[in-house]
Design goal:
- This protein is of the alpha+beta class.
- The chain is about 20% helix and about 30% strand.
- The strands form three sheets. Strands 1, 2, 3, 4, 8 and 10 form a six-stranded antiparallel sheet that branches. Strands 7-6-11-12 form a four-stranded antiparallel sheet. A two-stranded antiparallel sheet has the order 5-9.
- Strand 1 and strand 2 form a beta hairpin.
- The N and C termini lie far apart (about 85 Å).
Length: about 190
């Protein structure tokens, strides 16, 4: 009778170990998803980033509907830098702060992308107002605007968020959209 009892005990032990391992894995996955929620402020490798309320960039001199430019459609080659097709330029103000005692290097074009909304893939930075400043001195800050050309999100699209990847670590930052509707598309 020791044989069947031993086997039963082993089966119960293996099942218990599998249940414990499965529960631990589930909790890790849940915690990882909870940690991936966009946050309003994040710190990565000595720099803290705080985005402000986004705004649709005015492109009055690039209007394509014919009503605002004397009734003619401007050809695409006469509008360098304007968003393409049905895209609209979104500006996201951001403040980067170095609270530490060491100079910190950074690159907005390499570190920030925009995700969520109507698109499937992250959108790379179109331009920014931070310029060529590649570093922050100790205990200093810089404020600028990150510009992305996107298809304006519909109400049922996932929320937009800034993806910040810095030195192998990443965070997702909340993007607060303006209350007003985006300007009409540029449809060249």
């Amino acid at each position: 009778m020791r044989g069947p009892g031993l086997i039963r005990g082993l089966v119960v032990g293996v099942a218990t170990a599998a249940a414990i391992a499965g529960t631990a894995h589930w909790q890790q996955q849940r915690d990882a998803r909870a940690g991936a929620e966009p946050v309003p402020v994040a710190t990565l490798h000595g720099i803290t980033a705080t985005p402000g309320e986004a705004g649709w960039a005015p492109m009055e001199h690039h209007q394509m509907d014919g009503a605002d430019n004397g009734g003619f459609r401007m050809p695409a080659q006469m509008m360098p830098g304007a968003p393409e097709d049905d895209m609209t330029r979104l500006g996201i103000p951001i403040t980067l702060v170095n609270d530490g005692g060491d100079t910190r290097w950074f690159s907005p074009a390499e570190e920030f992308t925009l995700a969520g909304g109507a698109g499937d893939a992250p959108v790379t930075l179109h331009s920014d107002t931070i310029g060529e400043l590649p570093r922050l001195a100790p205990h200093s800050a810089v404020r600028g605007v990150l510009y992305f050309d996107i298809e304006p999100p519909a109400e049922d699209d996932p929320p937009l968020y800034l993806r910040w990847d810095r030195d192998g670590a990443g965070k997702e930052l909340t993007v607060t959209l303006p209350g007003e509707a985006p300007p009409p598309g540029h449809g060249h």
